[in-house]
């Protein structure tokens, strides 16, 4: 990670800023103009004081009298210059902020658009936390240098005018300035170069401390039940100590450079006083010039540091830019065809020689599914049965085109799903996944997902999913907020909402991935009964991943999956008859019961 | 107490500060020295105006032309003071950073540990993110104040005082004039600050909305794709991005207005000083050098005024942060470890006894809620395998949580090996009793790290042996990287069933005397489930095992079945006994049998 400022990074950083300038030329021009006003008025305010000293104050002290007009003029000039300067400051800050926030908003939108566009295979390759920080912290970092940029541009301008003003006042005094100001600028560059890697490290550790705390608290029950509080505390204390050390290192650098940067202009003023007195003695400058220059030094000390601020943000900005571009430039979106999904009767499904593996991009490719072939005629129900970890969930994802197979194809009504138009699969098939995801939205929103649906239909779907009872009992019924920041629902209730979400769309292909695992057996029986009735109406083709025989009983055909291969297909009875593996799987409980009964029988016979 | 303590929220800021410093003496380490250094650093700040005054009055305006000799002595002397000041400031900064960071690290770790010591009920009553922020951003807020704000308060107030004193020495009339200009500013800034802080509160809220909208597009990616909900999600993200941007722009607008205000006031003060000072000078009350020095002294006023209001704000944030951290530390764990005073019964199969146990979850807003477990009296002999069954909400899980002392009963008591559970040291309790919940949380590490979590010294061979004993060797062999397979955040790279297998192996490797399984294999296929149960039967022979399950195959295999119904033990006996009589168990069994029928 490039955390130091070097010419390469700087060039890249300026390139990033140029992107922003091109995107918001008007706002940038306004902020720079305001900054320019601020620069001119800063130099002017020192000049005004010098003039006031020379032409109003000192004559008055010398002569013991002054005109009201001169005094008023000085006062008006001082306040007037300050007013313009204030205007410049306000404008600069306002427009710089505007530009920064606009760029952030623009890139946040683009990054999330990309998340929604990129295929799920891409999502699988990137950890959730990373994607969230790409859209938030990284976008923030990219455009952070925009805030001090106009100020920095203004400062360059200010230095040029100040140099002129110094030369006009006196060559020798100007020489002092030419020594002091570059020294401040240089010191600041050194400061930021030393600080930014340390600050980045502290920032990184802060995030790590937070991650450890988050994970540890989330796994609180495991920590407690296994009595691992001490080791968790140690793990956290280690990070906390590293953060402390990092912060202290930051403190050392800050603690050194801040006083130095404060002292330098002071020393400059002192040098001006010394040189100035000598020059006055030789008559090269007057007292007003002296005050003017000394005051200028005091005023310039602070703005000069803006150059350092921009530099400080550049490395983080460049890193963020690479990450954000990584998302924006990611190719491999799911290509869509133009085929229109056919009809509104139940869909037929064919899976032909499908192979699929995760981690094709880097890690060892590891195939989850090998040569999977099966089909479901329109209106039929097919159960997919297999042991834990055999690839059932992966297969369901392929059926609704969450991912595309590496080889082989999935066909709906004889059309390859890759040839269907965008949204065509979603209009045809609905998947209820094993892991329920609820949006931070109302019950209605979670069921309809924004489709115009009359409430009666929503209730009907809820009824079919056996969710109407608890939804009716919620404080605001369909309008109750659920999800992360809403009413807490039990696992079984969440699963039933997810089921209703699928049913309300009247899909022509319904894919259930162990979608009732958290539901009570009694309730499940009612759900299955309802589905069977709906099925009788010829509504949908159903693919169901199941362990329970009552669920398998719904199926016209069973696909027995083991280690990613279809080991057998047929009716439940056929498989029972010819496949030992299948028998072992679905009859496990009965066999255990029979064996136990047998054993007990023997025991009883013996006694 | 199931919610965090509110004591700290109600007390005054000063007492929070006093208490916080008393409990964390690290903060005060070497404070006297630091304050002395601060004093030196502050005095140095007025040296420039003094130098200006001396140079003008005694050098430039000396009778008979500029007195170079005097200036040649005075200026280097002042430069020396500046250097000493700089060194003092450096030393002060380093000391302040070191002591505050050390104190904050200690505070962070103490709060973290305390969160884990709180009972499960307290932990789950707080939003997870809120607990995390108490050991992260809340502490950071204190940190920021200590290093920046605290320093500024010392330096800025010192600077104001020293500058004021110097002004009063030069001219009390002008000093009053400067104060009169700046005082209204202080109030105005305070007012602005309130507006700004409200604006930033809005910004933070919008950030929360933004993050949750963005996270939906990432975490819910498969549902969004499966249901073609991209447009809708994009609209929601756009709206939250736009709201955030507007809130930011509004806050920035306020800041842009506020920031130059103090410079404007400084200009007014300067103009007033020029006018009044000139008039005073004509009257002989003031020298030219003193008047010019005043102009420099005014610049010393602007900084402190600007930061003072910000510091006040930060101080408020820091106090609020400190209160939230203290709120954690003030909360007495309601399920407390008896510590060294506790007892450590010898290891070996555990006998459990519940005596008239009643339990009610605390109601919202304090006080007990409805009773969920009624006078439960039951004994579980050592080495027995007990199945606990009942419908959802019948009290099974509550029973398990009481048994593992995740919660304490409202009345009655629980004994293991004749020792009241409350008297058993946690170190002994957690070693001997382990529960596997339905949703076993996995840490973002490898499979091996997760399985050995309860017993870090276990070797890879131990782990493989344990997995083999559980009948899971085939499953492990099928994983691409075996024990080195990374499980991902919360174990999300594995399927739900696989996560349960890992959680089970983890508990098994921990080698407890009493194993409590709460729906621990609900997502596992039947053959694996039976294999695991059989393995556990074999290995639990030497220990006590309590299993809660919907799948009644566990009950059939158990020595003893406890049937819960509406918070009471309705029936107890062997499967054969219970299934023979009409009752809750017979009904449950009928519905289980129906599921297995075709």
Automatic annotation (TrEMBL), chain B:
Question: Which spans are transmembrane here?
Answer: 27-48, 68-91, 151-170, 176-192, 254-276, 282-302
Q: Does the keyword Cell membrane apply?
A: yes
> What are the alphabetically sorted keywords of the record?
ATP-binding, Cell inner membrane, Cell membrane, Membrane, Nucleotide-binding, Transmembrane, Transmembrane helix, Transport
Q: For this UniProt entry, what's an example GO CC term?
A: plasma membrane
Q: Where is the ABC transmembrane type-1 domain?
A: 35-317
InterPro entries linked:
AAA+_ATPase (IPR003593), ABC1_TM_dom (IPR011527), ABC1_TM_sf (IPR036640), ABC_transporter-like_ATP-bd (IPR003439), ABC_transporter-like_CS (IPR017871), P-loop_NTPase (IPR027417), Type_1_exporter (IPR039421)
Specify the ABC transporter domain's residue ranges.
Answer: 352-591
SUPFAM superfamilies, per this entry?
ABC transporter transmembrane region (SSF90123), P-loop containing nucleoside triphosphate hydrolases (SSF52540)
Question: Pfam family of this protein, just one?
Answer: ABC_tran
* Alphabetical list of SMART domains matching this protein: AAA
Identify its membrane topology class.
Answer: Multi-pass membrane protein
Any one GO molecular function term:
ABC-type oligopeptide transporter activity
- Location(s) in or outside the cell: Cell membrane
Question: Which PANTHER family did the record assign?
Answer: ATP-BINDING CASSETTE SUB-FAMILY B MEMBER 10, MITOCHONDRIAL (PTHR43394:SF1), ATP-DEPENDENT PERMEASE MDL1, MITOCHONDRIAL (PTHR43394)
* Annotated protein name in UniProt: ABC transporter ATP-binding protein
